[in-house]
Amino acid sequence: MTSRARLEAAVQGRKADRPAFGFWYHFRPLDWFPPALREEYCEERPDDLAIYVEQMPKATLEFWHRYRPDLLKVMHDAPYESSGIASAEDWRQLRRLGPTQGNFGAHLEVLRQIRAGLPNDVPMIETVFNAQYYANKLCGKRLSEHLRDHPEAVAEGISVIYDNLEAYAREAIKITDGIYFAVNGASEDTGDPDTYKRYFQERDRRLLESASSAPFNVLHLHGYGELYGELVADMPAAIYCWSDRASNLSLSQGSAMFKRCVMGGINEMRLPEYGRREIATEAADALHQETPYGFVLAPGCAVATDAPEDCLRAIGEIASELLSEEN
3-326 in CATH: which number? Predict the structure, then answer.
Protein backbone atom coordinates (compact mmCIF):
# COMPACT_ATOMS: atom_id res chain seq x y z
CA MET A 1 0.00 0.00 0.00
CA THR A 2 1.06 3.60 -0.51
CA SER A 3 1.38 5.99 2.40
CA ARG A 4 -1.73 7.81 1.23
CA ALA A 5 -3.77 4.60 1.02
CA ARG A 6 -2.50 3.57 4.44
CA LEU A 7 -3.58 6.87 5.99
CA GLU A 8 -6.94 6.78 4.22
CA ALA A 9 -7.52 3.34 5.72
CA ALA A 10 -6.61 4.65 9.16
CA VAL A 11 -9.05 7.57 9.13
CA GLN A 12 -11.79 5.26 7.85
CA GLY A 13 -11.12 2.71 10.58
CA ARG A 14 -10.09 0.04 8.05
CA LYS A 15 -7.18 -2.37 8.15
CA ALA A 16 -4.03 -1.70 6.17
CA ASP A 17 -0.93 -3.74 5.45
CA ARG A 18 0.61 -2.15 8.54
CA PRO A 19 -0.07 0.87 10.75
CA ALA A 20 0.69 4.26 9.25
CA PHE A 21 3.36 6.11 11.22
CA GLY A 22 4.82 9.56 11.58
CA PHE A 23 6.93 11.78 13.82
CA TRP A 24 8.36 15.28 13.65
CA TYR A 25 10.76 17.70 15.26
CA HIS A 26 11.56 21.41 15.14
CA PHE A 27 14.31 22.70 12.87
CA ARG A 28 14.94 25.90 14.85
CA PRO A 29 17.91 24.47 16.81
CA LEU A 30 19.86 23.58 13.65
CA ASP A 31 22.88 25.64 12.65
CA TRP A 32 21.42 26.90 9.37
CA PHE A 33 18.30 28.34 11.02
CA PRO A 34 18.38 32.19 11.20
CA PRO A 35 18.80 33.17 14.88
CA ALA A 36 16.46 36.14 14.48
CA LEU A 37 13.63 33.75 13.54
CA ARG A 38 14.02 31.44 16.52
CA GLU A 39 11.56 33.42 18.63
CA GLU A 40 7.84 32.68 18.33
CA TYR A 41 7.14 36.13 16.90
CA CYS A 42 8.99 38.95 15.16
CA GLU A 43 8.45 41.64 12.57
CA GLU A 44 9.19 40.70 8.98
CA ARG A 45 12.90 40.18 8.27
CA PRO A 46 13.29 39.69 4.50
CA ASP A 47 16.92 38.56 4.51
CA ASP A 48 16.32 35.96 7.21
CA LEU A 49 13.12 34.81 5.52
CA ALA A 50 15.06 34.25 2.30
CA ILE A 51 17.37 31.86 4.16
CA TYR A 52 14.35 30.15 5.71
CA VAL A 53 12.66 29.68 2.33
CA GLU A 54 15.87 28.27 0.86
CA GLN A 55 16.79 25.91 3.68
CA MET A 56 13.52 24.76 5.27
CA PRO A 57 12.29 22.76 2.24
CA LYS A 58 15.68 21.09 1.91
CA ALA A 59 15.77 20.16 5.59
CA THR A 60 12.20 18.85 5.54
CA LEU A 61 12.69 16.76 2.40
CA GLU A 62 15.96 15.37 3.76
CA PHE A 63 14.04 14.42 6.91
CA TRP A 64 11.43 12.59 4.84
CA HIS A 65 13.98 10.75 2.71
CA ARG A 66 15.85 9.68 5.85
CA TYR A 67 12.85 8.34 7.78
CA ARG A 68 10.03 7.89 5.22
CA PRO A 69 7.06 8.66 7.52
CA ASP A 70 3.66 7.89 6.01
CA LEU A 71 2.41 11.32 7.09
CA LEU A 72 4.77 14.27 6.70
CA LYS A 73 3.94 16.97 9.23
CA VAL A 74 5.62 20.20 8.17
CA MET A 75 6.88 22.24 11.11
CA HIS A 76 5.73 25.86 11.00
CA ASP A 77 8.96 27.27 12.41
CA ALA A 78 8.45 30.72 10.88
CA PRO A 79 7.52 33.16 13.67
CA TYR A 80 4.20 34.98 13.88
CA GLU A 81 4.62 38.41 12.33
CA SER A 82 4.15 40.94 15.13
CA SER A 83 5.90 42.92 17.80
CA GLY A 84 5.41 42.02 21.46
CA ILE A 85 2.56 43.12 23.71
CA ALA A 86 3.01 45.06 26.95
CA SER A 87 -0.24 46.99 27.43
CA ALA A 88 -3.97 46.80 26.80
CA GLU A 89 -3.61 49.19 23.88
CA ASP A 90 -1.08 46.87 22.26
CA TRP A 91 -3.78 44.20 21.93
CA ARG A 92 -5.93 46.66 20.01
CA GLN A 93 -3.04 47.45 17.69
CA LEU A 94 -2.60 43.90 16.42
CA ARG A 95 -3.01 44.06 12.67
CA ARG A 96 -4.52 41.91 9.97
CA LEU A 97 -1.89 39.93 8.10
CA GLY A 98 -2.15 38.97 4.47
CA PRO A 99 -2.05 35.16 4.37
CA THR A 100 0.19 35.19 1.29
CA GLN A 101 2.50 37.97 2.45
CA GLY A 102 5.37 38.33 4.92
CA ASN A 103 6.11 35.42 7.23
CA PHE A 104 2.95 33.56 6.23
CA GLY A 105 3.75 33.98 2.55
CA ALA A 106 7.30 32.75 3.07
CA HIS A 107 6.07 29.59 4.70
CA LEU A 108 3.54 28.99 1.93
CA GLU A 109 6.48 29.02 -0.48
CA VAL A 110 8.19 26.47 1.77
CA LEU A 111 5.08 24.29 1.51
CA ARG A 112 5.03 24.57 -2.28
CA GLN A 113 8.65 23.50 -2.55
CA ILE A 114 8.15 20.56 -0.20
CA ARG A 115 5.07 19.41 -2.07
CA ALA A 116 6.94 19.61 -5.38
CA GLY A 117 9.75 17.46 -3.98
CA LEU A 118 7.54 14.89 -2.25
CA PRO A 119 5.98 11.86 -3.97
CA ASN A 120 2.29 12.41 -4.69
CA ASP A 121 1.33 9.34 -2.69
CA VAL A 122 2.78 10.81 0.53
CA PRO A 123 0.34 13.05 2.42
CA MET A 124 1.70 16.24 3.99
CA ILE A 125 0.02 18.50 6.51
CA GLU A 126 0.90 21.97 7.74
CA THR A 127 1.23 22.91 11.41
CA VAL A 128 -1.09 25.70 12.58
CA PHE A 129 -1.02 26.79 16.21
CA ASN A 130 -4.16 28.22 17.77
CA ALA A 131 -4.49 31.82 18.93
CA GLN A 132 -3.97 30.94 22.60
CA TYR A 133 -0.46 29.79 21.78
CA TYR A 134 0.50 32.98 19.97
CA ALA A 135 -1.34 35.31 22.33
CA ASN A 136 0.50 33.88 25.32
CA LYS A 137 3.86 34.21 23.54
CA LEU A 138 3.20 37.79 22.42
CA CYS A 139 2.61 38.99 25.98
CA GLY A 140 5.52 37.14 27.56
CA LYS A 141 3.39 34.27 28.91
CA ARG A 142 1.24 36.69 30.91
CA LEU A 143 -1.99 35.95 29.07
CA SER A 144 -3.95 35.03 32.21
CA GLU A 145 -2.95 38.32 33.81
CA HIS A 146 -3.86 40.33 30.72
CA LEU A 147 -7.23 38.59 30.41
CA ARG A 148 -7.96 39.38 34.03
CA ASP A 149 -6.99 43.05 33.77
CA HIS A 150 -8.00 43.91 30.18
CA PRO A 151 -10.48 41.26 28.96
CA GLU A 152 -12.11 43.36 26.22
CA ALA A 153 -8.83 44.53 24.71
CA VAL A 154 -7.34 41.05 24.80
CA ALA A 155 -10.47 39.58 23.23
CA GLU A 156 -10.14 42.06 20.35
CA GLY A 157 -6.54 41.00 19.79
CA ILE A 158 -7.36 37.30 19.99
CA SER A 159 -10.05 37.78 17.36
CA VAL A 160 -7.54 39.40 14.99
CA ILE A 161 -5.07 36.54 15.50
CA TYR A 162 -7.79 34.00 14.74
CA ASP A 163 -8.83 35.87 11.59
CA ASN A 164 -5.22 35.76 10.42
CA LEU A 165 -4.83 32.07 11.22
CA GLU A 166 -8.08 31.12 9.49
CA ALA A 167 -7.07 32.98 6.33
CA TYR A 168 -3.67 31.31 6.41
CA ALA A 169 -5.14 27.83 6.96
CA ARG A 170 -7.38 28.26 3.92
CA GLU A 171 -4.31 29.04 1.82
CA ALA A 172 -2.27 26.20 3.31
CA ILE A 173 -4.79 23.50 2.41
CA LYS A 174 -4.57 24.54 -1.24
CA ILE A 175 -1.07 23.04 -1.13
CA THR A 176 -1.29 20.36 1.56
CA ASP A 177 -3.58 17.51 2.59
CA GLY A 178 -4.63 19.23 5.77
CA ILE A 179 -3.48 21.04 8.87
CA TYR A 180 -2.08 19.83 12.16
CA PHE A 181 -4.00 22.19 14.44
CA ALA A 182 -2.16 22.52 17.76
CA VAL A 183 -4.73 23.44 20.41
CA ASN A 184 -3.25 25.12 23.46
CA GLY A 185 -5.25 26.14 26.53
CA ALA A 186 -7.25 22.93 27.06
CA SER A 187 -4.90 21.21 29.51
CA GLU A 188 -3.86 21.86 33.08
CA ASP A 189 -0.40 23.06 32.06
CA THR A 190 -1.52 25.41 29.26
CA GLY A 191 -4.70 26.99 30.62
CA ASP A 192 -7.94 26.52 32.52
CA PRO A 193 -11.23 25.16 31.16
CA ASP A 194 -13.31 28.29 31.73
CA THR A 195 -10.84 30.55 29.91
CA TYR A 196 -10.60 28.13 27.02
CA LYS A 197 -14.38 27.88 26.69
CA ARG A 198 -14.85 31.65 26.88
CA TYR A 199 -12.12 32.85 24.52
CA PHE A 200 -10.89 30.00 22.36
CA GLN A 201 -13.22 27.02 21.99
CA GLU A 202 -15.58 28.32 19.31
CA ARG A 203 -12.84 30.01 17.30
CA ASP A 204 -10.83 26.78 17.32
CA ARG A 205 -13.89 25.03 15.95
CA ARG A 206 -14.36 27.72 13.30
CA LEU A 207 -10.76 27.43 12.18
CA LEU A 208 -11.06 23.68 11.72
CA GLU A 209 -14.33 24.19 9.86
CA SER A 210 -12.59 26.64 7.53
CA ALA A 211 -10.13 23.87 6.61
CA SER A 212 -12.65 21.03 6.59
CA SER A 213 -12.35 20.36 2.86
CA ALA A 214 -8.91 18.82 3.48
CA PRO A 215 -8.90 15.05 4.08
CA PHE A 216 -6.32 14.66 6.85
CA ASN A 217 -6.81 17.46 9.36
CA VAL A 218 -5.31 16.59 12.75
CA LEU A 219 -6.39 18.13 16.05
CA HIS A 220 -3.45 18.04 18.44
CA LEU A 221 -4.53 18.56 22.05
CA HIS A 222 -1.32 19.97 23.47
CA GLY A 223 -0.30 19.50 27.07
CA TYR A 224 0.72 17.08 29.77
CA GLY A 225 -0.97 15.80 32.90
CA GLU A 226 -4.70 16.46 32.87
CA LEU A 227 -6.17 17.14 29.44
CA TYR A 228 -9.65 18.62 29.02
CA GLY A 229 -10.51 16.42 26.09
CA GLU A 230 -14.25 16.95 26.43
CA LEU A 231 -13.75 20.58 25.36
CA VAL A 232 -12.58 19.55 21.88
CA ALA A 233 -14.36 16.21 21.53
CA ASP A 234 -16.74 17.14 18.72
CA MET A 235 -14.53 19.32 16.55
CA PRO A 236 -14.20 18.61 12.80
CA ALA A 237 -10.89 16.78 12.49
CA ALA A 238 -10.09 13.45 10.87
CA ILE A 239 -7.41 12.52 13.42
CA TYR A 240 -6.89 13.37 17.09
CA CYS A 241 -3.40 13.43 18.59
CA TRP A 242 -2.17 14.06 22.14
CA SER A 243 0.57 12.93 24.53
CA ASP A 244 -1.17 9.74 25.57
CA ARG A 245 1.89 8.41 27.43
CA ALA A 246 2.25 11.56 29.52
CA SER A 247 -1.34 12.54 30.28
CA ASN A 248 -4.55 11.28 31.86
CA LEU A 249 -5.98 10.13 28.51
CA SER A 250 -4.97 6.78 27.01
CA LEU A 251 -5.38 6.00 23.31
CA SER A 252 -8.39 3.78 23.97
CA GLN A 253 -10.01 6.41 26.21
CA GLY A 254 -9.41 9.08 23.59
CA SER A 255 -10.79 6.87 20.85
CA ALA A 256 -13.99 6.38 22.83
CA MET A 257 -14.23 10.11 23.60
CA PHE A 258 -13.40 11.54 20.18
CA LYS A 259 -14.78 8.72 17.99
CA ARG A 260 -12.10 9.43 15.36
CA CYS A 261 -8.82 7.99 14.25
CA VAL A 262 -6.22 8.54 16.97
CA MET A 263 -2.48 9.12 16.59
CA GLY A 264 0.08 8.39 19.28
CA GLY A 265 1.40 5.50 21.32
CA ILE A 266 5.04 6.55 21.82
CA ASN A 267 6.28 8.67 24.71
CA GLU A 268 8.06 11.60 23.05
CA MET A 269 9.49 12.82 26.36
CA ARG A 270 11.37 9.57 26.99
CA LEU A 271 12.07 8.61 23.39
CA PRO A 272 15.68 9.92 23.34
CA GLU A 273 16.59 7.48 26.12
CA TYR A 274 14.72 4.54 24.61
CA GLY A 275 16.19 1.58 22.82
CA ARG A 276 14.43 -0.49 20.20
CA ARG A 277 12.88 -2.74 22.84
CA GLU A 278 11.10 0.11 24.63
CA ILE A 279 9.77 1.54 21.36
CA ALA A 280 8.52 -1.88 20.27
CA THR A 281 6.83 -2.43 23.63
CA GLU A 282 4.95 0.88 23.47
CA ALA A 283 4.03 0.38 19.81
CA ALA A 284 2.64 -3.10 20.45
CA ASP A 285 0.69 -1.86 23.46
CA ALA A 286 -0.77 0.98 21.40
CA LEU A 287 -1.74 -1.36 18.57
CA HIS A 288 -3.64 -3.62 20.94
CA GLN A 289 -5.62 -0.85 22.61
CA GLU A 290 -9.26 -0.44 21.56
CA THR A 291 -9.13 2.10 18.73
CA PRO A 292 -12.00 1.10 16.42
CA TYR A 293 -12.01 4.41 14.55
CA GLY A 294 -8.42 4.02 13.36
CA PHE A 295 -4.86 4.35 14.61
CA VAL A 296 -1.61 5.99 13.47
CA LEU A 297 1.62 5.19 15.31
CA ALA A 298 3.47 8.33 16.42
CA PRO A 299 4.88 10.16 19.40
CA GLY A 300 2.32 12.33 21.15
CA CYS A 301 4.09 15.56 20.24
CA ALA A 302 7.36 16.76 18.69
CA VAL A 303 10.42 14.68 19.49
CA ALA A 304 13.73 16.25 20.46
CA THR A 305 15.60 17.60 17.43
CA ASP A 306 18.74 15.79 18.60
CA ALA A 307 17.02 12.46 19.24
CA PRO A 308 19.28 9.59 18.10
CA GLU A 309 18.79 8.72 14.45
CA ASP A 310 18.71 4.98 15.18
CA CYS A 311 15.93 5.59 17.67
CA LEU A 312 13.85 7.48 15.09
CA ARG A 313 14.49 4.92 12.36
CA ALA A 314 13.23 2.23 14.71
CA ILE A 315 9.73 3.74 14.74
CA GLY A 316 9.23 3.07 11.04
CA GLU A 317 10.93 -0.31 11.19
CA ILE A 318 8.71 -1.41 14.05
CA ALA A 319 5.60 -0.11 12.27
CA SER A 320 6.53 -2.34 9.32
CA GLU A 321 6.65 -5.33 11.64
CA LEU A 322 3.19 -4.65 13.09
CA LEU A 323 0.95 -6.35 10.54
CA SER A 324 -2.69 -5.37 10.26
CA GLU A 325 -3.73 -8.88 11.24
CA GLU A 326 -2.64 -8.00 14.77
CA ASN A 327 -5.00 -5.00 14.90
Answer: 3.20.20.210
